[in-house]
Amino acid sequence: APDIPVIDQAYSKLSNSITVEWRAVPGATNYMLTAQDGDSFVETTVKNSPGTVTGLKPATLYRITVRSINSGGKSQPSPFRKVKTVLAAPILSVRSPSCDSIAVSWRAVHMAAGFSVSLMRSDGLGKVLKQNTTNTSLIFTNLDPGTLYTIKAYAWNANGMPGDDFIHNQRTSPNTPVDVKVAFNSGALRAVVSWMPTEGALTYSVTVSSGLLKLRCNTSSASCMVPSLQCSCEYDVSVTAHNDAGSSEPTDAVSLKMIPCAPVNISIEEDEPGHLLVSWSSVSLGHYYVVFVKSDDGLEVHCNTSHTQCHFQSDCGFTYFISVFAYNKAGQSPLGDVLNYTTAPCCPSDFRAVFVSSDTVRVTWAPVRGADLYETRAAGGSGAVLCRDTATACSLSALQCSTRYNITVLSFSEARGSSASCAPHYVATAPCSPEIKNISKEGVSVISVQWQPNNEEAMYVVTARGEAGLWHCTSTRNSCSLMDLPCGSAFSVSAIARSPAGQSLPSYSIPLETAPCCPNDLVLTQVTQSVTNVSWSVGRGAQTYVTTLESPKGQAKCHTLQNYCLLGCITCGTNYTVSLRAISETGLTSSCTYQGYSSSACCPSGVKLYRLSNNGIRVFWRASDETINYNADLRGSKGNFSCTPSSGLSHCDITKIPCGDVYTVLVVPVTNKRPKLTFCPKKIYSVTCSGSSVGMVIYRGKSNAKHI
Question: Ranges for the Fibronectin type-III domain (predicted)?
Answer without folding.
Answer: 1-88, 89-175, 176-261, 262-346, 430-517
